[in-house]
Design brief:
The chain has helices at about 15-20, 35-40, 50-60, 80-90, 110-120, 125-135, 155-170, 175-180, and strands at about 1-5, 25-30, 65-75, 95-100. With about 200 residues, the chain is α/β, with parallel strands linked by helices. The chain has a domain at about 1-100 and about 155-180: pyruvate-formate lyase- activating enzyme, CATH 3.80.30. A 4-stranded parallel beta sheet has the order 1-2-3-4. Helix 4 (about 80-90) packs parallel to helix 7.
Length: about 200
């Protein structure tokens, strides 16, 4: 699986299309927000939302299986966009979608706090409070099985919202196709080189 958040991935459509013929590739496009201004400060070096949706459309039109990763979900900042994100992804042709809750390990936490203060100061206390609510009072909990989704009522609320929004968006689009092309890629066409290649041949 190839994960990308930039329209530049479409430059490799010819290669990805060939791999897709052998069920040897799928692409996951990261889609965090539909708000172009928020996207600009969250991921300043990535393609804007409209370009990521265009990439989904172009990849799907070429027969390349595409899913969407709405990550990170930041409670109090972009979690309200979940239904719109999934509806837009489905309209663009995505087969399925998944999410993760924001993780703030080690030195990431103070950097994120400073980012909130600089870019969305009015949301800072709400966002940090909700993260702590989902992390047992801390900004980060490395507990296996919970670090990607959080715990407690708020985490369950986001999970339920996500499930309902996926269903309304018609995702997964085709469970059999998703299982085959996204969840079960094949290595049957892979061949181990028989001799070491030379840089000078």
């Amino acid at each position: 699986m190839v994960t990308a958040k930039n329209h530049l991935i479409t430059r490799d459509i010819d290669l990805l299309k060939e791999l897709a013929k052998w069920n040897a590739v799928s692409v996951s496009i990261s889609l965090t927000t539909l708000d172009a201004e928020l996207s600009k400060v969250m991921e300043p070096r990535a393609s804007r939302p409209s370009r990521r949706l265009a990439a989904i459309e172009e990849l799907c039109a070429a027969g390349i299986p595409v899913s969407v990763l709405t990550a990170p979900i930041i409670p109090g900042l972009n979690d309200h966009e979940i239904p719109a994100l999934l509806a837009a992804a489905a309209k663009a042709g995505a087969l399925d979608a998944g999410y993760t809750i924001l993780r703030l390990p080690y030195a990431v936490a103070p950097l994120f706090e400073a980012w909130l203060e600089r870019h969305v100061p009015g949301h800072k206390d709400k966002v940090l409070g909700r993260i702590r609510e989902m992390r047992g009072g801390k900004l980060y909990d490395a507990k296996f099985g919970k670090r990607m989704s959080g715990e407690g009522p708020l985490a369950q609320q986001i999970k339920t919202l996500y499930q309902v929004a996926k269903r309304r968006a018609g995702l997964p689009r085709n469970r059999e196709e998703v299982a085959r092309t996204v969840g079960g890629l094949s290595t049957s066409a892979f061949r181990v080189p028989t001799a070491q290649l030379s840089l000078f041949e």
